Amino acid sequence: MTTLKYQTVIIGGGVAGMAAATELHKSGSKVVLIEGNKKLGGQVNNWYKVFPNFRPASEIVNSLSTNLLKDKIPVLLETSITHIESNSGNYILKSNQGQVIEAETVLLATGFNTFDPSGKEEYGYGIYPNVLTSVELEQRLKTNTNGISPKRIALVHCVGSRDEKVNRLHCSKVCCVSAVKQAIELKEFYPNAEIICLYMDLRMYDNGFEELYRDAQLQHNIKFIRGRLSECALNIEKDLVLKIQDTLAGLPMKLTVDQLILMVGKEAHQLPQFDESIIIEKASHGFIKPADSHLNPNTTSQPGIFCCGTTSGPKTIQETISDARSASLAVCDYLNKK
Amino acid sequence: MSKFGFKLTPSGTINYDQGDFRLAEFIDQHEPSSRLCISCGACSATCTGGAFAKLEMHKIHLFIKRGMSDNVKTQIQNCMYCGKCQLVCPRGVNNRNVIRLILTHFKI
Amino acid sequence: MAFDPLVIPFSLGLIFLLIVVFYKYYTWIRQMPKPKNPPKGLNRIKAYFDASIEVIMESLLHRKIFKQNKLLGYMHMSIAFGWFMLIVVGNLEAKMTSTNAINPPYFPIFLNFFAPDRSLTPGHGIFSFTMDLFLAMVLSGLLLAFIKRSKSRLFGMRRTSKMRGMDKIALYSLWLIFPLRLFAESFNAYNHNSGNFLSANCGDFFATFLPVAQLEYSMWVLYSLSLGVFFVALPWSRYSHIPTEVVLIFIRHLGYRSCVKPTGYNMFDLYSCSRCGICIDQCQINILSETNKTVTAHYIYDMRVGNKNDFGLYSCLACGRCEEACPVGIKTVDLRIGKRYSETPQTVVKYNVPKPLKPTAHNVGYFSGCMGKLTPSVIESMHTIFRAANENVLHIDKEDGICCGRPLILSGRVDQAAQLIQLNKDRIVASGIKTLVTSCPICLKTFKEDYDLNIEVIHHSEYIEQLLETRKIKTKFTNQNVAYHDPCELGRGLKIYDAPRNVIRNVAILSENPNKNERELCCGGSLAGIALSQEQKQTLASDAIHQIIDNETKALITSCPLCKKSFTQTSVIKVMDIAEIISQNLILPAEHKVKEKQHVQEFVNYN
Q1: Where are the domains of chain C?
Q2: Is the pLDDT of residue B3 over 60?
Q3: Burial (CB count <10 Å: 0-12, 13-18, 19+), residue A83
Q4: Does B82 touch chain C if contact means CB atoms closer than 8 Å?
Q5: Does B103 contact chain C (CB < 8 Å)?
Q6: Which residues in chain A touch residue C373, judged by CB atoms under 8 angstroms apart?
Q7: CATH of the domain at A150
């Protein structure tokens, strides 16, 4: 079998991988992009519109993949790397398709998974059909299949984030603003329904987020209740009865809703299997720990292996693309010095 | 006084400077997880005892930390010790031990 | 009457011991409430007889310890039984030797001193042989005890108890008693040309290099002294178990039981502990700390001497593994809860009682428990099963669920629990149901033991077993490999081991783990472990999971909502309740399928 030779292998064809591939190609590096699925785009494919401006998510994916096509950057679809070992300064990667790839550097753009809330049983996911995740809601919004005229929908923040009970202490960063975005979309879908966000903290930290929150309140009349959902049961009419504490009013609250959306958090995607000699340090939340989070955010503990996008922690799409571009600089720098 | 429509109650404001922090220190020392409470209220919402009497765990944490420990004396005895507050707590606060410590502190 | 000043230490020690012990037992017995069902008439005689047999089998022969480990059993047996026989045979021989009607108690102990030449005593040869034999037996036991201090693994114990305070004095004096007796007897044998295989040969040997004629008297004095010191130390040491255990066995046979509100019985339990250390390896808190202050053998010491040990008191899971292993049958869980009770001032607050249930025509009531609210899949699965079996069931705590009271009992607030018990009992009785099914073993235990309900109370695993046996529901078999975890309160607490297993075998391949049944591990989430942190509980849960499952296991089945919650937090495989695995594998007749479809459809279309 012939060994394919590249300077850089990018693992993961999401927005991070695609952005990095284009940048690296521009700087003259011989690069290949590897994606496990049938199509490029990664998690962003699961989104209908993105915050804060309701731009269709497909636009972003299409724009990035068109660049790849234009530059004729090699892409291996439906390929996942099963094993990586180091060989005199280079890396040998083996894929499930049987390919062997030798590369000087590896850029990990494996991204994230969303939290599976079935372990958080008290929220009723997988038990009551009207409890769904934010990802499932995006699909329904996209295909316009979210049932008929619910009277009230609640969105629960921090499901699988900031929760010691599911061993996930980190904040997933995007769920707060995603919830506000989805609340507005739901309100536009069902103008007569009441849409309620149940939050612990609202982290509207980036440009346009706070404005979106304001809009949600003023233009769309989204209700915000500060309290963490503690349990969800059914009444006789098979509506969902939520028990929460309205911590600002200082009173316990019973709330009947037709649909419950769980804003599932981000958790690290599984990395390819590395040879024992390769050590990739991880942070406590399971994502890759950068060598220096301020000055070298894309360098891992293993020289020649880099990370970008949500591989090193939750990020927005915008941050992911910037991070991917910064990673390509770090990779070029490494290749030049070699 | 109440017939005038208002009362002069010392509990109307939090007098942090003159708070009674003995209980706060006692709990802080023996159950440091109580520091982690962010008042999300999940404990109070799920509370079995709270459905039949006044008991809001997250407020108890607050009162203690604000030096208003007298406010929790009667509430705390309504606890049924079922442990649900702990199972829903996203921060791993050991509420049942906090309640035990408060009872020990007040000798009730 | 024979007398010599050397008997004074022994005699004073013995008198002191008897006064202390009798005073203590008298006060404890007075603190015991009358038993609920004491044996009467012939049964009472049988109780005394059974108790005597148990005393011989357990206090002397240590049958239960033999079962656990032969060497450990021999060690305990040789000292207890050997010593007992020395006293019995010694007394017999003294009786044969002396012409007096009553001998002073010290006479048989120092028989060789007072009557060195007994060649005329009938059966002299046999007596002398048996006395040497039992002395040799005791000495072999002591040697093993000495070895056990450093090599406990030989005795099947990873850890052994440490000697503390008064125990040390008692232990050292105990260790000295029999070697000193050997010296005294063998010197005596040499000086008077008597003795048997042990004393005579040892005497000859010692005489080769020791002035045995001059040393004999001082050996008797030292022997008497060591006995005296041991007797004085005994009531305050672990060796108080020697007399107390015997009394405990008798009162147990007479129908007295331990109670979470401490009574005299609990005192007998407390002082019956020999701190043999068999419970130590059973305690799961071992994995949390090097110096386990929670384990019963250590905690009982703290309880006896009044040491403050809050972590030991409030970190105990009350899982009952130590109680199950205890060769004396001490109710370790009740002891600990009793201590919590006595440390907690009992106040009773009033709740706004929910409106009472109206009498219904339902035969079966379902109580899902507080924890059930956090495991809705258990409740939903039960409802699916109820529908499939065509059972019209009243969900008692669907809304307004009151806690069963057991958590309050476990925390020591027993009087407050009594109020909850009354409230719940009123609701259950008012509903008019004939069978109460509960998903929560914690509730089940307290319903059965503290409620005095005159209706059938069963766990949902038993209920499902009944439905399967009467063919009210049918299931399909899947080839998946599952493991079952016995919840503490259901297994050790109520001895329900078979029903869940029979149920699971209908739908999956059940692989048993080495810790099953009464040796099962706690999930760590026990409501008794008040002082344990979230992290510590997760450590316990993950350790338990790894001991229960293997690489083949596809799902971990349990039958307690709390165990399910604790395990889900750390498990690498799926954790399911027994009701879930059954409801997933139900074979439904055609008309039911339509019903189930409707049931699901009602969700999706918002009316």
Answers
A1: 5-239, 257-343, 364-465, 469-587
A2: no
A3: middle
A4: yes
A5: yes
A6: 122, 231, 233
A7: 3.50.50.60
Are B81 and C533 an interchain contact pair (Cβ–Cβ within 8 Å)? no
CB C318 within 8 A of CB C336: yes
Contacts of A244 in chain B (CB under 8 A): 41-42, 45
Q: Of the candidates C374, C407, C532, which has its C-beta nearest B80's C-beta?
A: C407
Within 8 A of C400 by CB-CB distance, chain A residues are: none
Residues A121, A96, single domain; the answer is: no
CB contact under 8 A, C569 and A147: no
Are residues A164 and C534, on separate chains, in Cβ contact within 8 Å? yes
Instruction: Determine the topology of domain C257-343 in CATH.
Output: Fumarate Reductase Iron-sulfur Protein; Chain B, domain 2 (1.10.1060)
* pLDDT < 70 regions, chain C: 1, 601-607
The rounded distance, in Å, linking the Cα atoms of A86 and B8 is: 76
Q: Can you give the pLDDT at residue C607?
A: 38
Residue A325 pLDDT class (50, 70, 90 cuts): very high
Of the candidates A127, A166, A231, the beta carbon closest to that of C569 is on: A166
- C436 shares contact with chain B (CB less than 8 Å): no
Round the average pLDDT of chain A to a whole number and report it: 94
Q: Which helix (H) or strand (E) holds C516?
A: none
Residues A301 and A181 in one domain: no
A286 to chain B, closest Cα gap in Å: 18
- Across the interface, whether the CB atoms of B46 and A201 are under 8 A apart is answered no
Question: Could you report the per-residue pLDDT of A264-311, keeping only the tens digit for each?
Answer: 999 999 999 999 999 999 999 999 999 998 999 999 999 999 999 999
Q: What is the pLDDT of residues C174-218, one digit of tens each?
A: 989 999 999 999 999 999 888 888 999 999 999 999 898 889 999
Contacts of C373 in chain B (CB under 8 A): 46, 84
Instruction: Round to whole Å and give the CA distance between C124 and C117.
Output: 10
Q: Give ipTM to 2 decimals.
A: 0.89
**CB count in 10 Å sphere of residue B78:** 19
Same domain assignment for residues A140 and A198: yes
Q: How far apart are the first and last CA of chain C?
A: 103
Number of A/B CB contacts below 8 angstroms equals: 66
A211 and A296 co-located in one domain: no
Place of tokens 């609640």: A154
Do A196 and A182 touch, CB atoms closer than 8 A?
no
Best interface-test mutation with A: which of B36, B40, B46, B58 has the largest number of A CBs within 10 A? Answer: B40
CATH number of C469-587: 3.40.50
Residues A295 and A229 reside in one and the same domain: no
Which positions in chain A have a beta carbon within 8 angstroms of at least one beta carbon in chain C? 119, 121-122, 124, 126-130, 147-151, 164-167, 231-234, 237-238, 258-259
For A233, which residue in chain B has the nearest alpha carbon? B46
Of A224, A245, A264, which one is at a domain's C-terminal end?
A: A264
Give me C187's structure tokens: 């010197």
Nearest Cα neighbor of A140 from A239, A232, A261 is: A261
Judged by a CB distance cut-off of 8 A, whether residue B74 touches chain C is yes
Mutate: best of B33, B36, B46, B52, partner A, most A CBs <10 A:
B46
Give the structural domain span for A324: 3-111+269-337
Alpha helices, DSSP H only, in A71-174?
134-143
Taken in order of first residue, the domains within chain B and their CATH numbers are 20-106 (1.10.1060.10)
pLDDT score, position C292: 83
Domain-terminating residue out of A211, A245, A264: A264
Average pLDDT for A22-37: 95
Total residues belonging to chain A: 338
For residues A114-123, give the mean pLDDT: 93
* Domain match, A134 and A247 both: yes
Topology agreement, domain C364-465 and domain C469-587? yes
Same domain, A141 and A255: yes
**Domains held by chain A: number:** 2
User: A15 near A320, Cβ under 8 Å?
Assistant: yes
Give burial (CB, 10 Å; 0-12/13-18/19+) of C63.
Answer: middle
Are A223 and A139 found together in one domain?
yes
| CATH for the stretch C364-465 | 3.40.50.1860
Residue of chain C whose Cα is closest to the Cα of B101: C531
